[in-house]
Specification:
By secondary structure, this protein is an alpha+beta fold. Helix content is 40%, strand content 33%. It has three helices and three strands; from the N terminus they run ααββαβ. The chain has a three-stranded mixed sheet, with helices on one face. A hairpin with a 2-residue loop joins strand 1 and strand 2. It is elongated and about 45 Å long. The N and C termini lie far apart (48 Å).
Length: 99
């Protein structure tokens, strides 16, 4: 279950990351799952590109993972918690300085 969730998170991030280079810098998502009584609770740890609307990006990842896991497993996804490990600068931002 955790592998499916991690793969779904990777798909969601690829879909919502503006450039391939920015997506390539993101660490692979990590996931945990607790299954019981026909439902599952998922925990995800992800990197997100910077700059981004954190609330919107988080909701999109949570929604996509929830739908995808339910579709692939037939289980009801009760909860998807998301921890943002780090923000990864998009192309060119890592060398900019404020003057």
């Amino acid at each position: 279950m955790a592998r499916i969730a991690a793969r779904a998170a990777k798909e969601a991030l690829a879909e919502h990351t503006d450039s391939f280079a920015a997506h390539a810098k993101l660490a692979a998502p990590r996931a945990s799952a607790t299954v019981g009584s026909g439902s599952v609770r998922l925990g995800l740890t992800v990197d997100l590109p910077y700059p981004t609307d954190l609330a919107r990006a988080s909701r999109q990842v949570q929604d996509y993972v929830s739908e995808r896991v339910a579709q692939l497993t037939g289980l009801r996804v009760f909860e998807v918690t998301l921890a943002i490990e780090r923000l990864v600068p998009a192309d060119g931002l890592e060398h900019r300085r404020v003057q």
